[in-house]
Write a structure and sequence with these properties.
The chain is built from 6 helices and 9 strands. By secondary structure, the protein is an alpha/beta fold. A hairpin with a 2-residue loop joins strand 6 and strand 7. Helix 1 packs parallel to helix 4. The C terminus is likely disordered.
């Protein structure tokens, strides 16, 4: 799949299911105490590091953007889908939401105190993921923090229907160790990892483990862990 194909199908699918997605997942965080704990830790790290804006890349309906804002973070959202952004702006009129792609962020170098990709890298093809992580490194300030959330595992689950609407999305499950390795290759330093086990008994059942990675851009601007520069 080319970059253009991936962007088009992801945008169209989320435009199609924006309303149903919002109705289903609007209150999901209330049922996920460990997710909230990871978000709280991320917010505290950003604040202790001097603040600075935080981009929620792939923000969808803005529910996690708003949660971060409630934790005292200057958070704003970026998403491919105009339909999802319309819901985000309606639900959270006091926050900023912009259309854009993680493969080419319209943000200055080193301008963010933090960046979150909460289940938004799951549709990115493997060969394009390093480019996204290079973008994350570029826009983070030295000392800035990154939080990823994604399904842990292997393989791709294809979905062609959601809430009675036709979609065309691949959900990629990935091993946390592999994802962490890509972050390190992009120049980031790993700081924490959490994996939640399968949960089929909650109001929001999950048939795969859920992974969360925290990383940080080194204080020395441009330094990579391998001793090179970016």
């Amino acid at each position: 799949m080319t970059e253009l194909d991936f962007l088009r199908t992801t945008r169209t699918s989320y435009d199609t299911m924006a309303v149903g997605y919002d109705e289903r997942f609007r209150d999901e965080l209330a049922a996920k105490p460990l997710d909230r704990a990871m978000l709280a830790g991320f917010a505290e790290l950003v604040r202790d590091g001097g603040g600075g804006p935080v981009a929620d890349v792939g923000c969808g309906t803005g529910r996690v953007t708003a949660h971060l804002h409630g934790l005292g973070v200057d958070a704003f959202g970026i998403d491919l889908s105009p339909g999802m952004l319309a819901v985000a702006r309606r639900n959270h009129p006091g926050l900023r939401f912009e259309e854009g792609s993680m493969l080419g962020l319209d943000l200055p170098d080193g301008g963010l105190g933090g960046l979150m990709a909460w289940y938004s890298t799951i549709h990115v093809p493997d060969e394009q993921l390093p480019g996204a992580f290079d973008e994350f490194f570029r826009v983070l300030a030295p000392g800035g923090h990154l939080l990823l959330g994604f399904q842990a595992g292997d393989g791709v689950k294809r979905r062609t229907e959601a809430w009675g609407r036709d979609i065309d999305l691949d959900f990629r499950r990935r091993q946390p160790e592999w994802m962490a390795g890509l972050l390190v290759e992009a120049g980031l330093t790993m700081t924490a990892r959490m994996v939640r086990e399968i949960d089929t008994e909650s109001d929001f059942p999950e048939v795969t483990p859920q992974a969360f990675l925290l990383a940080r851009k080194p204080i020395v601007s441009g330094a990579r862990e391998d001793g090179g520069t970016n």
